[in-house]
Design a protein that fits this description.
The protein is mainly alpha-helical. The protein has one domain (4-178). The protein has six helices and three strands, in the order αααααβαββ. It has a three-stranded antiparallel beta sheet. Helix 2 runs antiparallel to helix 5 (109-130) and helix 3 runs antiparallel to helix 4. The longest helix is centred in the middle third of the chain and has 23 residues, at 82-104. It is globular and about 45 Å long. The two termini are 22 Å apart.
């Protein structure tokens, strides 16, 4: 059961996502183009990174960060509608920066996890807007970042916390299911 504070935080995150979606796509009706499913490949790299953090593996997380940068650099934005392209580019720029930092900070998992938190916020927006056909779980950890909380996405229903790994593996809960 979520506490009142957790509901407030999740509502604030959802409002931020809604604001970003509305601001960046004022001319779109919110439908996802059937041609945007290659974004799902970005999500699979994200899940690999998340699982590396679950396993306290800073080197695998760094590798996933480097891979994400490569994939985002090679992403064919021509498959996106014109009204989607700008929003994707803005999100991708943020994701790339945090993925790059995760790649550069192998050996400092605490710092990597800080970047992962920020990356996760943009991946959440990307998944809401562009992912197609996959069930994705938006999970919430109330204790990360000095009890300010953090969201992460997962491909499975089972809670495995990437922010604390083996120290608090099952800390968190499902906040939302994305399809």
């Amino acid at each position: 059961m979520l506490s009142r504070q957790q509901h407030v935080i999740i509502a604030a995150i959802k409002k931020t996502v809604t604001d970003k979606l509305n601001h960046s796509s004022a001319h779109t009706n919110g439908d996802v183009s059937p041609f945007t499913s290659p974004v799902n490949g970005i999500l699979h790299i994200y899940f690999h990174m998340k699982n590396a953090f679950v396993n306290d593996n800073d080197k695998a997380a760094a590798g996933a960060g480097n891979e994400m940068v490569k994939v985002l650099n090679a992403f064919d934005k021509s498959i996106l509608r014109d009204d989607e392209r700008k929003q994707f580019e803005d999100l991708a720029a943020n994701v790339k920066e945090h993925a790059k930092q995760i790649g550069l900070t192998a050996g400092n998992i605490k710092r990597q996890r800080e970047h992962f938190e920020l990356l996760s916020k943009d991946i959440y927006v990307m998944a809401k807007k562009f992912a197609a056909g996959e069930r994705i779980y938006a999970n919430y950890c109330p204790m990360f970042n000095d009890n300010k909380g953090a969201v992460w996405l997962s491909e499975t229903e089972e809670i495995k916390n990437p922010y604390f790994g083996s120290k608090m593996l099952t800390c968190g809960n499902i906040a939302e299911i994305l399809n």
